[in-house]
Write a structure and sequence with these properties.
The complex is a heterotrimer of chains A (264), B (283) and C (256). By secondary structure, chain A is mainly alpha-helical. Helices cover 73% and strands 2% of the residues of chain A. Chain A has one domain: Arp2/3 complex 21 kDa subunit ARPC3 (Orthogonal Bundle). A two-stranded antiparallel sheet of chain A has the order 1-2. In chain A, helix 6 runs antiparallel to helix 7 and helix 7 runs antiparallel to helix 9. The termini of chain A are far apart. Chain B is of the alpha/beta class and 283 residues long. Chain B is built from twelve helices and ten strands. A six-stranded mixed beta sheet of chain B has the order 6-7-8-3-9-10, with helices on both faces. The N and C termini of chain B lie far apart (45 Å). By secondary structure, chain C is mainly alpha-helical. Chain C has two domains: 160 residues, no CATH class; 79 residues, no CATH class. In chain C, strands 1-3-2 form a three-stranded antiparallel beta sheet. The chains are: A mainly alpha (264), B alpha/beta (283), C mainly alpha (256). Chains A and C meet through helix 1, helix 2, helix 3, strand 1 and helix 5 of A and helix 2, helix 5, strand 1, helix 6 and helix 8 of C.
Chain lengths: 264, 283, 256
């Protein structure tokens, strides 16, 4: 038993050393790490493309329905997409002192709902690939799946769930944004682990390896994003009540409660 | 006097949040007229323009186009907007495409014109606004003045009868403002009715043949520019100043350089011509 | 403002039909991804580098700099695949055991990592070929021709246009904040960034309504229709693409 414990401690300390090493070597967690062009084998790239399509179709349907009713919201969605792109190019201070880029997943999902975010997320990822070489065309399916599907749906679920449980507004927003961001990278790690099982230990070992790099290191950054999202909502509720009301077209009742205000 | 083309009758309008933007606005625009609407920021100029092609609907009162009340049915609105074009103040909220060519073709395509006609019109609009060399450039690599010209081309390509320019020279450098004024002259000669808003009193005075002064959502004066500027109480009420031509003229009259009967100069050339050479005076 | 984007409008292949460039890019990318040998990705990299630097006239310096952009992701990921940590020292090709824990490389993992490294670089060069030679508006036109849902291409047109408008706004706000000592501490960074984000978001609301009004003034009635520039279709280019791809496909099939 004692030997086991020592082994465990060693493992954990090694892991911590590993994470710290990554921080030192790569302090700027570049662009939230989309899977780069050509990194996924053909079959996996195709698999994620196919997995993405039904969600995109659902998103397109939902957007179409909304913009037929309110034609001006098409322009709003377009500009929101541009905003997300610009936001992702800004540096966010991390609670550990390094910096990264906000994903805007939580903010976008709470404002526009997960279905619209899938389509916006995909388009923003296309532009990031073609204009900034972050992510890629073959890996668009995988990246959209993590950032445009898993991230937003997790955010949305947590936001709605916590609200239903009577959690304060700021907490719901914080948790939605933080976990939405984090789950995006957990998904990325799973995608990479599935594609590249380790020679010893297989998929599980590989997923863990990737998580220790892409997800654990993301925790402080996810918290930063959560804080930032809460702060942005505080400003929005103070100054942009009218605009927030417009958005109920996307999210139904979800947003109406924001009227009552967020207090952090 | 030529026929009326646009008319606002007892217009009242409030924004959805309750801010009163237009109060009892009455304005007649004649065909082929050059009308300047003068007023400081927030006077209601842009809001009035949005009424003229049915983007905003008045709470009460009516807009008449060629003597008939405009209808707010979709089809009728498109007919109206085909005749009354607006060039907005900020090209960054009018140009929706990164391709100059795509943006200019948008309007004429919406009119249901065949492709050849659209191409022809777009080309002509590029020539008229001197933007032919920008055709292949993306919008975001254009200067402000270039964007402005492209946004004008996008409206010209629809060949409207009435063109409304919201603050057209704001942000243009002197050379491009001058070129823009030449373009306006050309459009006038083609018989277009032109309405522009500005807070540049000099521009309004020398360019327009009718002027309306707006303040606090009301039209406080409407008429001949020379006459309006002779009423200092209006100019003061609207937070405006006098055009330098008029100030100079009255100064010269006051100091005895010009006889009081000298007509108001419309251009700087008029003014300079009326000032006698020094020798004449002494002799 | 964005380097890649600026080159797309000022390179020697700008007037080549976007469909030809897209077909070439996508086919080569698939060939590169399905390669079983390390030679294919290297050939792809060479062809694309030639296309970008010699044909399109993009400075070699720029191309090299761009190739380094995804390198941090690539290195981290490739090393993650190559290295393993285990309590069982058996089966390692190269390893170091410290206090019963073994850090090292399994040979098959190393092979995977090397293949992956080259394949990714090859694919990235394909991506750059398309991105550096083809204006985004034309790529959107190709997507439209491919029957991508209209709402997607319309949103792309709007997003692409307003990325630059908002980037300009963001830069201006940031500059103003920096000049009033924003971002000096963690706390002020958070405050500055949240102010910047919400100011931008406010712009999103205002501008989108203004744009809608402006489009309505030009008879917009629900669908954004535009004319696109016609580029000449070149049979020669298609033959050339076939000439490039067939040997590469054969190489992939025969080299087992």
């Amino acid at each position: 038993m004692i030997i086991m414990n020592q082994r465990m401690i060693k493992r954990i300390s090694l892991l911590i050393a590993y994470v710290l090493a990554i921080y030192i070597v790569f302090p700027d967690n570049a662009y939230g790490m989309h899977i780069m062009e050509g990194f996924l084998p053909f079959n996996w790239a195709a698999f994620w493309w196919i997995a993405m399509i039904p969600f995109v179709i659902a998103g397109v349907r939902s957007i179409k329905k909304t913009v037929t009713l309110y034609p001006n919201l098409k322009m709003l969605l377009g500009m929101a997409g541009a905003f997300a792109f610009v936001l992702s190019a800004l540096k966010i201070p991390s609670v550990t002192g390094s910096c990264s880029h906000p994903t805007g997943v939580g903010l976008g999902t709470i404002l526009f709902g997960p279905a619209a975010m899938t389509v916006l997320g995909m388009i923003v990822l296309i532009f990031q690939a073609l204009l900034l070489a972050h992510g890629g065309i073959t890996t668009l399916g995988a990246n959209t799946f993590s950032m445009g599907i898993v991230g937003p749906f997790v955010s949305y679920g947590i936001y709605r769930g916590l609200k239903k449980l009577g959690a304060p507004q700021w907490l719901s927003i914080f948790m939605a944004a933080t976990l939405g961001d984090l789950m995006t990278y957990v998904t990325t790690s799973i995608q990479l682990g599935l594609a590249f099982p380790a020679a010893s230990g297989g998929v599980m070992a590989s997923v863990l390896k990737f998580m220790s790099i892409f997800a654990f290191t993301q925790i402080p950054l996810a918290i930063s994003e959560g804080l930032l999202t809460v702060m942005v909502f505080n400003i929005l509720t103070a100054y942009s009540q009218k605009e927030l009301q417009v958005l109920t077209a996307f999210t139904g009742k979800a947003l109406s409660s924001i009227k009552r205000g967020v207090k952090a | 006097m030529s026929e009326l083309i646009l008319e606002a009758v007892d217009l009242e309008y409030s924004y959805p949040d309750g801010t009163k933007a237009l109060r009892n606005v009455n304005l007649q625009v004649h065909k082929g007229e050059k009308l300047a609407i003068l007023g400081s920021n927030g006077a209601g100029k842009s809001t009035l323009f949005m009424q003229f092609n049915g983007i905003f609907r008045p709470n009460s009162g009516t807009i008449k186009y060629q003597g008939e009340d405009i209808s707010y049915k979709n089809k009728a609105l498109i007919e109206l907007r085909k005749k009354v074009g607006i060039v907005f103040q900020d090209p960054d909220s009018q140009l929706f495409s990164a391709s100059v060519w795509q943006d200019i073709s948008f309007g004429p395509l919406n009119l249901g014109l065949p492709e050849e006609v659209v191409i022809e019109r777009a080309k002509q609009a590029l020539i008229d606004t001197e933007t032919t060399d920008l055709e292949d450039k993306p919008t975001h690599l254009l200067s402000y003045g270039q964007k402005k010209r492209v946004s004008i081309a996008g409206v010209l390509a629809m060949e409207p009868d009435v063109i409304i320019f919201d603050e057209p020279t704001a942000g243009l450098d002197p050379r491009h403002s001058k070129e823009f004024m030449l373009l306006l002259e050309k459009l006038s000669l083609e018989g277009k009715t032109i309405i522009l808003s500005t807070h540049d009193v000099d521009l309004a005075y020398f360019w327009s043949d009718k002027m309306a002064i707006m303040f606090g959502g009301e039209i406080i004066a409407h008429g001949d520019p020379g006459e309006l500027f002779r009423r200092p109480e209006i100019v003061k009420q609207a937070d405006l100043t006098l055009p330098w031509l008029i100030e100079m003229h009255s100064e010269l009259v006051q100091k005895g350089w010009l006889p009081p009967s000298t007509p108001l100069p419309k251009t700087r050339e008029d003014l300079f011509r009326s000032i006698p050479a020094k020798n004449d005076k002494a002799g | 403002m964005i380097d890649i984007d600026s080159y797309a409008y000022s390179n020697n292949l700008k007037t080549v039909h976007p469909a030809e460039k897209s077909v070439f890019t996508m086919m080569t990318m698939v060939v590169c991804l399905t390669a079983t040998t390390v030679i294919t990705p290297l050939i792809v990299l060479a062809i694309m580098a030639g296309g970008i630097v010699i044909k399109a006239g993009i400075p070699a310096r720029v191309f090299v700099k761009l190739m380094l952009v995804p390198l941090s992701f690539l290195l981290i990921s490739v090393l993650t695949i190559a290295f393993s940590v285990s309590t069982n020292p058996a089966g390692f090709w190269l390893a170091q055991t410290i206090h019963g824990l073994t850090v090292g490389i399994h040979y098959p993992d190393l092979i995977t990592a090397v293949h992956l490294f080259l394949r990714s670089l090859g694919a990235v060069s394909c991506l750059y070929f398309l991105a550096l030679t083809t204006p985004m508006t034309e790529i959107i036109t190709v997507l439209h021709k491919l029957k991508v849902p209209v709402i997607i291409t319309e949103l792309m047109v709007l997003i692409y246009r307003f990325i630059f408008v908002f980037m300009e706004t963001a830069t201006t706000i940031r500059r103003a904040q920096l000049s009033r000592s924003g971002y000096v501490s963690m706390k002020s960074s958070f405050r500055s960034l949240s102010r910047l984000s919400s100011a931008l978001l406010g712009k999103v609301f205002v501008k989108s309504q203004e744009l809608y009004n402006a489009l309505a003034a030009r008879c917009y009635s629900g669908e954004i229709r535009v004319l696109t520039k016609k580029r000449p279709v070149s049979l020669r280019n298609y033959l050339m693409i076939t000439g490039f791809e067939i040997p590469l496909i054969l190489l992939n099939l025969l080299w087992r």
